[in-house]
Amino acid sequence: MGLDFSVIPKYLDIVLLGAVWTIAITIGAAVVSFFGGILLAVIALYAPKIIRWPFQAFSFLFLGTPLLLQLFLIYFGLVQIGIDVPAFMAGVIGLGLHFAVYNSELFQTSILAVDKGQAEAARTLGLSRMQTLRKVVVPQAVRDVIPPIGNNMIALLKDSALVSVIGVSELTLSAQRAIGSTYRPFEFYVLVAAIYYIINLVMEAVLRHVERRIQVSR
Amino acid sequence: MDYELMQRVFPFFLEAAWITILLSVLTAVLGLICGILGTAARLSRFVVLRFLGAAYVSLFRGTPALIQLFILYFGGPQIGIQLDAFEAGVIGLGVNVGAYMTETMRGAIIAVDKGQAEAARTLGMSRWQAMRNVILPQAMRLMIRPLGVNLNALIKSTALVAAISVVELTYTAQRYIGSTYKPFEMFLIAGVLYMIIIYIVGVGVALADRKARIT
């Protein structure tokens, strides 16, 4: 059975629709992982022990286990405790939490790296502890850590292929559907790889651009 | 929490953990080989090799490892490559992780001060002698820790072969979640086993790193 790429045009719209979902899930999970990462970092650094401890146990567990295993836990776990979320939501939550833990590690270092005088000055000016964090410390910490966070988001795009396993109709699963009716796995997986690669290149270009802007604004 | 069930299924998870370990070891060896070849290509004098090395790194890091596995395992037979799931898993993941290791190794070699190479060449060493006797020994020390990070990611990425039905830890967990409807218990068993494997490897890397720093 040789190669025959002529079957692709007929299924191109299904695959491209899948690509749209891949982009949607990547953006959704990126937002969850960004704000989740900040929240986890602030909890790890400032929350009282009783709140901190369970979150750190969660982070520890999520840093040491594969994403695929976590997706199974979240998808089937939510169903088990009676929350019936659509696969798409489970995918966004699973991917988002996984990368929130990684982002949190980055945010923690960068929050600690913000000059102490900044927080002291804010407190002296009468800002509360919460206001100081929200308006002075975190914004500076976020700016410093954008390049590595951006790399995590590019990794997130590629890991979004895994949510096909829990039945989210994104790029990978749409290719599997097309393969189901054409029996042409090589052609469609290569097509899908090419689409991922293009999205990846675009994200890298955007990140390089943003990095340059940050350099200038300093 | 259903402890009795956990006890009953534990032996099956333990067996699967050995498959995960075997996969990790074979993948790491293949990844290192690909990484060394990739690094040699990227640092080569010949523009064609440099281009091939850069293309390898860019393509394999720029697309999902899962898709690479699928192309090899499901698409392979169409171009005359017949592999069973385990072989496809090792080769697919090994070549993928090799691309990441290429960047790690290249980074360490570039990080060695330029003056070192210049001094070695001035003393009459050939390019290869300078690399082998002067640059590599220093670069090796720099690359142990980041290679450890690659290794950690590799162990977790072996879970992907569950998608092509290799019976390792994640596949086993998935199967038992499906048959017992106890996702948390199964996650916990598999998760703890993964963390033990990762912890042991982490200790090994830290020891190697410390030893490299003393000498």
Automatic annotation (TrEMBL), chain A:
Protein name: ABC transporter permease subunit
Residues making up the signal peptide according to the UniProt record: none
Domain ABC transmembrane type-1: 19-207
GO CC, alphabetical: ATP-binding cassette (ABC) transporter complex
InterPro entries attached to this UniProt entry: AA_ABC_transptr_permease_3TM, ArtM/GltK/GlnP/TcyL/YhdX-like, MetI-like, MetI-like_sf
CDD domains with a match to the protein in the record: TM_PBP2
GO MF entries: transmembrane transporter activity
Source organism per UniProt: Parasedimentitalea huanghaiensis
Keyword Transmembrane helix: yes
Keyword Transmembrane helix: yes
Membrane topology (UniProt): Multi-pass membrane protein
Localisation per UniProt entry: Cell inner membrane; Cell membrane
One example of a Gene Ontology biological process annotation: amino acid transport
Transmembrane regions: 20-46, 58-79, 85-102, 186-207
UniProt keywords, alphabetically: Amino-acid transport, Cell membrane, Membrane, Transmembrane, Transmembrane helix, Transport
Family: Belongs to the binding-protein-dependent transport system permease family. HisMQ subfamily.
From TrEMBL, chain B:
GO cellular component terms listed in the entry, alphabetical order: ATP-binding cassette (ABC) transporter complex
Transmembrane segments: 12-41, 53-74, 147-167, 187-208
Ranges where the ABC transmembrane type-1 domain occurs: 17-205
Membrane topology, record value: Multi-pass membrane protein
GO biological process, one term: amino acid transport
Major location (coarse): membrane
Keywords: Amino-acid transport, Cell membrane, Membrane, Transmembrane, Transmembrane helix, Transport
Keyword Transmembrane among record annotations: yes
Pfam families found in the cross-reference section: BPD_transp_1
GO molecular function: transmembrane transporter activity
InterPro entries xref list: AA_ABC_transptr_permease_3TM, ArtM/GltK/GlnP/TcyL/YhdX-like, MetI-like, MetI-like_sf
Record flagged with keyword Hydrolase: no
Subcellular location: Cell inner membrane; Cell membrane
Family under the similarity heading: Belongs to the binding-protein-dependent transport system permease family. HisMQ subfamily.
UniProt protein name: ABC transporter permease subunit
Organism: Parasedimentitalea huanghaiensis
